[in-house]
Design goal:
Number of domains: 3
Largest sheet: 7 strands, mixed
Strand content: 25-35%
Distance between the termini: 73 Å
Radius of gyration: 24 Å
CATH architecture of the largest domain: 3-Layer(bba) Sandwich
CATH topology of the largest domain: FAD/NAD(P)-binding domain
Bound molecules: flavin-adenine dinucleotide, nicotinamide-adenine-dinucleotide
Structural class: alpha/beta
Number of helices: 13
């Protein structure tokens, strides 16, 4: 078997792996990046889950479906009448595919221009920093490295009670590919994917029922914000049923029958398609030879320290395959950090300031701790809130529902968390992330001038409200 030598071999070219490879190459190291992604049609593309079946295609459909929905429901309020609005789902899907194609080809070009050797194939870590690569046609070769970075990502969890059949019972990737709008859509799991993809098909005309096992809606979100969001989603027509335990799903020629229990009663739901999105699991299938010596935790994640070092020296792991939120940007920051550490630089990830966004309408975004978490830590804190109903720009946008909530330490004024449900929350949260990165106080935000009229004024007013100084709201 031939053996090529590199300073760094990265396994996985998703948003954690490819930035690690590019940054290591920028720092003068010789780098190979091995990836085995294969689409349903057999084509191979870089970019992992995020670019192929995750962040990017879902946001493309969210944007298109929102435009369609707003054209139907909001234009009249602006004094615009539009007759004969119709949906061309084929064109919508083609636009999405075009974006994916452009961005995945872009990754290929970026790796090439950085001098990274991109290798298609399945990587398996042997002992002594060697990675065996199994190619398409049964070929195999070995890469020897000083350092190995494992960035193999995650995949949907399958429920034994509702196994995927790729046709009627699908995972998130299947739910991005529907060629017709299902009249009745069932979703198991009212988490991030359930809400985003449920929103896409709901806006395009599906009747959507979400079955969520927990009694609490979005437990990772600040309770006040989650309550507000739930009200708005239900008002939009999403039928979110909490405390619903699915006991089985049976597909037949004309649909899927879902059995579940809620409130101590056995219930049934008849739908045309069923999306199962109950979380994702780390991918380590066929990745670690017994002699690799890399430890996994009890949930199958590769065990790492805060610098993403595994149990084996000079073997690192980043992204969804390790602990922490399964978010593309979290993986990217870890990948870049690891490249810097390998090259001998100091680097760290601020795990206390990772933004999260749910791209529904309204969007939900947050950074830092929820009020319940601050309370559980026993900290003395203050809260400032501001409703978008009192924000001029939100009114002009016809999207004045929702609120901003800031939580700060009472004595030292340090910002501990910021939570938004409202228009463009995913863009607005960047200000709070930057503030927290610089350990800003609520007063720092209060003293920062915000352009008028913008949505950012709602963050300003929430900070002012924490000290009962809001100008455009009652300070209670
Ligand atoms: P992946 O992106 O999963 O990439 C891993 C790569 O490694 C894949 O290409 C895989 O084929 C390859 N691989 C695996 N094993 C091997 C092996 N042994 N040899 C070679 N290659 C291998 N996150 C956000 O931050 N924002 C969003 O808006 C967002 N939306 C999402 C929407 C959906 C529908 C889904 C499913 C996910 C979404 N996510 C979002 C999550 C995001 O996609 C993941 O957090 C991110 O892709 C993880 O990056 P990663 O590089 O760790 O893994
Ligand atoms: P999730 O953890 O967000 O939600 C899964 C939901 O399913 C939970 O509410 C859980 O209680 C529920 N559930 C679990 N088992 C169930 C059962 N048997 N019956 C009914 N409900 C059940 O997971 P997801 O929505 O699958 O998303 C996976 C990951 O992908 C998330 O961790 C998320 O971070 C990431 N993602 C992020 C974005 C984004 O950043 N906008 C978008 C999509 C996905």
């Amino acid at each position: 078997m031939s053996e090529q030598q590199f300073d760094v071999v990265v396994v996985g070219a998703g948003p954690a792996g490819y930035p690690a490879a590019i940054r290591a190459a920028q720092l003068g190291l010789s780098v190979a990046c091995v990836d085995d992604w294969q689409n349903a049609d057999g084509s191979r593309q870089l970019g992992g889950t995020c670019l192929n079946v995750g962040c990017i295609p879902s946001k493309a459909l969210l944007e298109s479906s929102e435009l369609y929905h707003r054209t139907e429901t909001e234009f009249a309020a602006h004094g615009i009448s539009v007759d004969g609005v119709s949906l061309d789902l084929d064109a919508m899907q083609k636009r999405k595919q075009g974006i994916v194609k452009q961005l995945t080809s872009g990754i290929e070009a970026l790796l090439k221009s950085a001098g990274v050797t991109a290798i298609r194939g399945h990587g398996r870590l042997l002992g002594e920093h060697k990675v065996e690569v199994a190619g398409d046609n049964g070929s195999s070769h070995v890469l020897a490295a000083e350092n190995v970075v494992l960035a193999t990502g995650s995949t949907p969890i399958e429920l034994p009670t509702a196994p995927f059949d790729g046709e009627r019972i699908v995972d998130s990737a299947g739910a991005l590919e529907f060629s017709e709008v299902p009249a009745r859509l069932g979703v198991i799991g009212a988490g991030v994917i359930g809400l985003e993809l449920g929103s896409v098909w709901g806006r395009l005309g599906a009747e959507v029922v979400l079955l969520e096992a927990l009694d609490t809606f979005l437990p990772m979100v600040d309770e006040q914000v989650a309550r507000d969001a739930l009200k708005q989603f239900r008002r939009q027509g999403l039928d979110i049923r909490l405390g619903a335990s699915v006991t089985g799903a049976r597909a037949s020629g004309d649909g899927v029958t879902v059995s579940y229990e809620a409130g101590g009663k056995k219930k049934r739901l008849q739908v045309d398609k069923l999306i199962v999105c109950v979380g994702r699991r780390p991918v380590t299938d066929g990745l670690l030879a017994p002699e690799a010596g890399v430890d996994l935790d009890d949930k199958g994640f590769i065990t790492v320290d805060e610098s993403c070092r595994t149990s084996v020296p000079k073997v690192w792991a980043v992204g969804d395959v390790v602990r922490g939120p399964m978010l593309a940007h979290k993986g990217t920051e870890e990948g870049v950090m690891v490249a810097e550490l390998i090259a001998g630089h100091a680097a760290e990830v601020n795990y206390g300031a990772i933004p999260s966004v749910i791209y529904t309408a309204p969007e939900i975004a947050w950074v830092g701790q929820t009020e319940a978490e601050v309370k559980a830590d026993g900290r003395d804190y203050k809260v400032g809130t501001f409703p978008f109903s009192a924000n001029g720009r939100a009114k002009a946008l016809q999207q004045a529902a929702g609120l901003v909530k800031l939580i700060a330490e009472r004595e030292y004024d340090e910002i501990l968390g910021l939570h938004i449900v409202g228009p463009m929350a995913g863009e607005l949260i960047a200000e709070a992330v930057l503030a927290m990165e610089f350990s800003a106080s609520a007063e720092d935000l209060q003293r920062t001038m915000h352009a008028h009229p913008t949505l950012t004024e709602a963050l300003h007013e929430a900070a002012l409200s924490a000290d009962k100084r809001a100008i455009h709201a009652l300070n209670r």
